[in-house]
Each structure stands twice: as C-alpha cells, then as structure tokens.
Amino acid sequence: MDRFEPLRRRTIALVGLMGVGKSSVGRRLANALGMGFRDADTEVEAAAGRSIPDIFAELGEAEFRKGERRVIARLLDEEPVVLATGGGAFMDPATRALIKAKAVSVWLKTDLEVLARRVGRKDNRPLLVGKEPIEVLRTQAEARYPTYAQADITVETGDAAHHVSVDQILRALSAYVEEHSQ
Ligand code: S3P
What we know:
The protein has 182 residues and is of the alpha/beta class. It has helices spanning 24-33, 40-48, 52-58, 61-76, 93-102, 112-119, 133-148, 162-180; strands spanning 11-15, 36-39, 81-84, 103-109, 153-156. α3 crosses α4 and α6 crosses α7 (133-148). The two termini are 18 Å apart. The mean pLDDT is 95. Bound molecules: shikimate-3-phosphate (S3P). Residues 18, 22-23, 41, 52, 86-88, 125-127 line the site of shikimate-3-phosphate (S3P).
C-alpha cells in the first residue's frame, strides 16, 4: 500500500470560485494521486452537446444548473476521481448534499485580485460577460464563502505554482483522512 492509497477511496471534489485552479490544479492532483480526473463543466458540455456560453445563452442558467446537478450526481456514483466542480455547483443544495455524502470536498481559496487577473484573460465564462471580473468575484465571494466553508477542507493556495498547491492539498487531505479514519 502506498501512502496515498487511503486518499483514493473517495472522490475528491474541488470547490471554489472561478479561476482558483479547480481544473488545472485538479488535473495535477489526480496525476500525483494516480486517480482519474473529471471536470464537471466539460461533462455538462458533453451531455448538452454545446459549450457553456451557448448553454447559458440558449437554455439559460437554470437549465445549466439542472444539467450540472445531473452530471455531478452521475459522476459521484462512478469510481473515485478528482472532480473539478464549476464555481456555482456547491451552492446548489442538492448537489452540495451529494458531494458532502459521497466525496471529500476541498475548498480552494485565493485572493480575489489573483482570481480577477486569471479570469480576465479568458472569455469562456458567461457570468463575466460585459462586467468587471473583480466586481463579480467580490459579489460571489460575499454570497458563496459561507457555503464554500462547509467543505470538509479549506486550502488557501495564494498565487502559488500548481505543484505547490498540489503539495498543500495532499498534506491537507492526508491529515483529514487520518483524522477521520480513527
Ligand atoms: C460558474 C463557474 C464556471 C461555470 C459557469 C458558472 C459559476 O466554472 O460552471 O460559468 O457560477 O461560478 P469555473 O468555476 O470552472 O469557472
């Protein structure tokens, strides 16, 4: 048995605001653990046969949230993986309850200025279209942080390189799993 074996028994669900690294760090975390990686946004796009901006534009946010709920429920019934959730997924009470029941949840938290810089470089997020990223992120942080805080673990990653964040998450997960296996 290697030291990560206890961490591979449950899905590790990454939650947090847009741009925090749920997908990029999550993929590397999965590699380090020898687990599969799934990205809920990508799975929603595959299920809907269109991109997230198109889902929002053509079907609306409420339909996107329904699809997200269905996809995450399905993924949580499959083999354990590292699962990057979309920033709003953990805010949905049904999705959150499933994640709490079936996964270890990790809130990745970083300064809003860092997030604003990262998301400002991309145009694939419908909630940011025509808005100042920092303003959207501030509003989301106010609304979402109390709920994200219900995750099993919080890891403050700052603006660190991906491999540094992966090490931080692995340490926090190991401590959590050890504490909860007694
Ligand atoms: C959203 C975050 C996005 C995506 C959608 C809505 C949100 O995912 O699910 O644009 O509500 O915060 P990322 O957090 O991966 O950017």
